[in-house]
Amino acid sequence: MQPFSKHFFLRPFWLIALVVLLALVAWGGSLAFSSRAETAARVTPTPTKTPTVVSLVSATAPSPTSAPPTAVVVTPTPSPLPSPSPTPLFSDISTPTPSPLSLPTPEPWLRQLAQSYGLDPNRDYIVIDQNNQEMHIIEAGRLAKRLHVTTGNPEFGWTTPAWFGVVGEYWGTFKGRGGVMADEGWWLFKRPGGNFLIHGLPYTLDKQGVKHYKGMDDLGASPASNGCIRLAPDDAAWFTQWNPAGKPIIILPYTGLHANQG
Q: Which of 176, 138, 137 is nearest to 158 (CA)?
């Protein structure tokens, strides 16, 4: 057996083996580096956490694929205000008429009389009291007026008969017996003696057209007419303004002056 020669490593075989060994070492190192790189590539780095926006409508976060929820604005319904009363025009304004409730209550015998004739005592009616020469005008159950009258004079056969009916048509100014005139005539009924009316005192006219009334002192004092029911001029005008057409009227019989009706 030959001793180990110092030229052993110079032989070509060993050179080739050495090169192959180095190549294997280099290849193995390359594989290990490649494996570490692939492992590092597969690991996902931890992302920065984005805060979730929570809707005020729902506590659940919206899906990333859905559109963000639309904000719902709720408008409160205001309470309806009362409609203002329309301002009246000047043409709508009129002078208020006094309420019948402000008028005095008629005497009990008047209400009882109305009921005895089948009338509603709480409505309009007229009573002629010949004994006291008075006219009672009841409006809505209240005494609207008490007027002095003069009725037919029985001493001369000019009586005013007792009667129950309604006031008829308006005659206005008309001419009576003896050429006298009368205003504010309201027709009541007709008898063989003629027409019976309610009207103002008779008068004559002078050349200047001035009216001279007859029987002013008889009003409320004594029966002095030819059968009609006479009123003072101003009272007759008021009676017409009150408009008695169609109102019930009771004419009580004449039995003597100032008889007690109570």
A: 176
- What is the SS3 assignment for 81? coil
**Is residue 120 domain-resident?**
yes
- The Cα–Cα gap between 154 and 225 comes to 9
* Residues 100, 3: Cα–Cα separation, whole Å: 164
pLDDT of residue 210: 96
- Give the pLDDT confidence of 207-231 residue by residue, as tens digits: 999 999 999 999 999 999 999 999 9
Give the domain CATH number at 215: 2.40.440.10
Which amino acid is located at 225 in the chain? S
Q: Nearest-CA neighbor of 240 among 171, 177, 188?
A: 171
Number of domains observed in the structure of the chain: 1
The domain in which residue 240 lies consists of 103-251
- The residue behind tokens 């009586």 is 159
Q: Which pLDDT tens digit goes with each residue over 178-197?
A: 789 999 999 999 988 799 99
Which helix (H) or strand (E) segment holds residue 126: the answer is strand 125-129
* Residue 81 falls inside a structural domain: no
CA distance 45 to 56: 33
- In whole angstroms, what is the distance from residue 200 CA to residue 233 CA? 5
What pTM, to 2 d.p., does this model score? 0.62
> Within a domain: residue 52?
no
